[in-house]
Amino acid sequence: MLGNMMFQPLLISSMIEHAGRYHADTQVISKNTDTNMTITNWGEVHQNSKRFANALSALGLAHADRVATIAWNNHRHLESWYAISGSGLVCHTINPRLFPEQLVFIINDASDRVVLFDKTFTPLIKAVKPLLTKVEHFICLDAADDAIREAIPEVKFYDDLIAEQPATFDWPLLNENAASSLCYTSGTTGHPKGVLYSHRSTVLHSYGIIMPDSLNLSAREIMLPVVPMFHVNAWGTPYAAAMVGCTLVLPGPGLDGASLVSLIDTYKVSVALGVPTIWQGLIAAAMQSGSTLESLKRNVVGGSACPPSMLKTFKEQFNCETIHAWGMTETSPLGSANQIKAKHLGLSEEERFNLRLSQGRPPFGVDLRLTDAENGTHEIARDGVTTGNLQIKGSWILNNYFGKEESALTADGWFDTGDIATLDADGFLKISDRSKDLIKSGGEWISSVDLENMAMGHPEIAMAAVIAAEHPKWDERPILIAIKKPESQLTEEEVLEFYADKVAKWQIPDKVIFVDAIPLSGTGKMLKKDLREQFGRVLLES
Ligand code: AMP
């Protein structure tokens, strides 16, 4: 017997309808590509999304056609997302920092028919255009501009297109399992792979992230997603924001610390999200300007491990609660978020601080387990000590990659994340490494993340990466690649001394190499593969 309740498919169009109807006057504040500010609201975003849906339909696109976006976080990009997915097309967000060959590969692989781009990326589009065999339309997300028309003669302009269209559009009643958006993994090994989200997975993920024990979002928040809309859909925040009707502050191209401090202070941002490298810039700029980031109640750190020193600085200097979260492109991304339970309320400050360092617990909607082998099915203890291969399953987790028939799951239906971690009985997850970044010294595993976190706790170290270097006796030994803070005279001996009372002697890095820069991926993660190529043999040479 079935239940007697109404069936309503979970669709992305319902989120923008809700925001447009009930939160029309709530602001969406956006920094444009030319750094001017546009202050609009959910009512206008709703209307423009319908105008642009009409414009897309006038281009003759068919259900499930792919529309690519190469753009910063701004209001036009936001409107286009709702127009594309809402009208049954697939929104393919692209990281502009990819190598041009990778960018061409994924646009062709996705068979994108339209490319939307911010004017910053005009030279990039001009350069790769001859190689984009399937793209029929290029739309600049801006007002008409002769310089852009000169570079790309067939270009159309977003503002012209929506000016011609009515703000009425009947969103199609799609199957909730229909594809809604597409995001490629960073592809540090091999070609990037596409993750094709559905309307259902996106709506459920949005419910997942707004919950109090996830990001605790409501109509009273002013949210700044610094994480780009091309990095796992800005972690789902543009959808969640419409669902709860909070104020959105979109930072455009200004991701440097000083620009972010100014946005936070001017628009009274209460919650902000980004990767650790972004927060490093913000902390340095706030300290320099003397800002206390007074309005910022919480920030969410994910994408790479949050160094303990960062959590401490946010709490002690800025009275800001840091939520450490974990996820990946294949998991929409939310897999866990760190919020304590009632039984932890009585803990001492220090105990609570230690608890908050981990990547947190899975929200309802996903489940985590550890196995003793990659892609294995044999589960191991959730004792907070034993490390294993982290696997995940749930309503917003990948089943198979775009264009690939075969399942990406283990024999019993879990997705192997490639991360090595511990879990405790309450579900608290601690990532110790990517499996490929772990260091195996004389048969014993050493976590590069732990050693990096310790180095980051040194007052004179600005950034630290620990990698495995080949070793004639131990196979691999850890070495530290570090950037010193300006003016620092720190020596290798002092750094090694700093480790002495923090880890077992055999885990202390064999060498410290000071550099001026550490290569970062398009999403701000340290490219350890490049560091291994550059420094992986230094111990053989000495
Ligand atoms: P991506 O799909 O590019 O977002 O990368 C996902 C990977 O980033 C995960 O598998 C982890 O290795 C890493 N990652 C994400 N969040 C965290 C975190 N909070 N701590 C440590 N690693 C993380």
UniProtKB/TrEMBL annotation:
GO terms for biological process, alphabetical: fatty acid metabolic process
Pfam families according to UniProt: AMP-binding, AMP-binding_C
Keywords: Fatty acid metabolism, Ligase, Lipid metabolism
Residues covered by the AMP-dependent synthetase/ligase domain: 19-402
InterPro entries, alphabetized: AMP-bd_C, AMP-bd_C_sf, AMP-binding_CS, AMP-dep_synth/lig_dom, ANL_N_sf
Keyword set includes Cell cycle: no
Residue ranges of the TM segments: none
GO MF, any single term: ligase activity
Protein's UniProt keywords contain RNA-binding: no
Residue ranges constituting the AMP-binding enzyme C-terminal domain according to the UniProt record: 451-525
Entry similarity comment: Belongs to the ATP-dependent AMP-binding enzyme family.
UniProt-recorded name of the protein: Long-chain-fatty-acid--CoA ligase
Lineage of origin: Bacteria, Pseudomonadati, Pseudomonadota, Gammaproteobacteria, Moraxellales
